TrEMBL record:
UniProt-listed PANTHER family: PROTEASOME ACTIVATOR COMPLEX SUBUNIT 3, PROTEASOME REGULATOR PA28
Protein name (Swiss-Prot/TrEMBL): Proteasome activator complex subunit 3
Family designation: Belongs to the PA28 family.
UniProt keyword Acetylation, yes or no: yes
Originating organism: Oncorhynchus kisutch
Limits of the Proteasome activator PA28 C-terminal domain: 117-259
Gene it is expressed from: PSME3
Gene Ontology annotations of biological process type: regulation of G1/S transition of mitotic cell cycle; regulation of proteasomal protein catabolic process
Limits of the Proteasome activator PA28 N-terminal domain: 28-75
Lineage: Eukaryota, Metazoa, Chordata, Craniata, Vertebrata
Entry annotated with the keyword Acetylation: yes
GO cellular component: cytoplasm; nucleoplasm; proteasome activator complex
Pfam families: PA28_C, PA28_N
GO terms of molecular function: endopeptidase activator activity
């Protein structure tokens, strides 16, 4: 009597935990299907509207330029003619001995005259609008990818055409997820590159090319941000189209073995 009661309790407990484990899966399926059917098309329309925003359609790129408040210092005059000759002689001896390289020391910078050097605020504002869109795509792709992976049945002989479609869908979602993550790397890379150039300007304020290079990378980043938004929209279009066209095979890769999906 006690043994049979113990078995019944174990069965009930097993069913309870089985039901509890299926709840997250059911919620994931519902969420993923809603993403494909509703969220993806709405988001691509939203991004298409964003691409028409005036902030992404500036014709004259001079409007996004940021002033670099680092003045060119007055030239240093040698107090003694021999100072210059001695410096040249020392440099010549260094080069002949092979103990040094022909490097320009530059200006020592202890503090910025006008305080902290600001970033290009126009680009920063635009970046802060684009970054949430990148993050959203990564998160939604991850959800849909997990949904498709859970629908992949166990490995069996026979017709695996539907399974191959599922695997291709997962691969495409993983690719889109990786590309979106690379956009975040591009943004951090832009800040690092620009910071190094501004440091160069502070050290070598007389070199105009460094100042022009900052302007060039700002313009390049602006164009890149518009391309990123366009790519985000296109990826939503591609994923929505691909999944809807193959939705039957994705949900039921083997019609005769539907029970093997769960």
């Amino acid at each position: 009597m006690n043994s049979s009661l113990k078995v019944d309790n174990e069965l009930n407990l097993s069913r309870y935990y089985s039901f509890e484990c299926h709840i997250p899966t059911i919620l994931l399926v519902s969420q993923a299907e809603n993403l494909v059917a509703s969220f993806f098309p709405n988001k691509l329309l939203e991004l298409d509207h964003f691409l028409k925003d005036p902030i992404l359609n500036i014709c004259d790129l001079k409007e996004i330029h940021s002033e670099i408040n680092l003045t060119v210092p007055d030239p240093i005059l040698l107090s003694n003619l021999h100072d210059g000759l001695e410096a040249q002689s020392a440099k010549k001896r260094k080069m002949e001995d092979g103990t040094g390289e022909d490097k320009v020391a530059g200006t020592k910078v202890f503090i910025m005259p006008s305080g902290m050097m600001k970033s290009n605020t126009k680009l920063v504002d635009l970046i802060e609008k684009v970054k949430p869109e990148i993050r959203t795509l990564i998160e939604k792709c991850n959800t849909v990818k997990m949904w498709v992976q859970l629908l992949i049945p166990r490995i069996e002989d026979g017709n695996n055409f539907g399974v191959s479609i599922q695997e291709e869908t997962v691969a495409e979602l993983r690719t889109v997820e990786g590309e979106a993550a690379s956009y975040l790397d591009q943004i951090s890379g832009y800040y690092i590159t620009r910071a190094k150039l501004v440091s160069k300007i502070a050290k070598y304020p007389h070199v105009e090319d460094y100042r022009r290079t900052v302007t060039e990378i700002d313009e390049k980043k602006y164009i890149s941000l518009k391309v990123i938004v366009s790519e985000l929209r296109n990826q939503y279009v591609t994923l929505h189209d691909m999944i809807l066209k193959n939705i039957d095979k994705i949900k039921k890769p083997r019609s005769s073995n539907a029970e093997a999906l769960y």
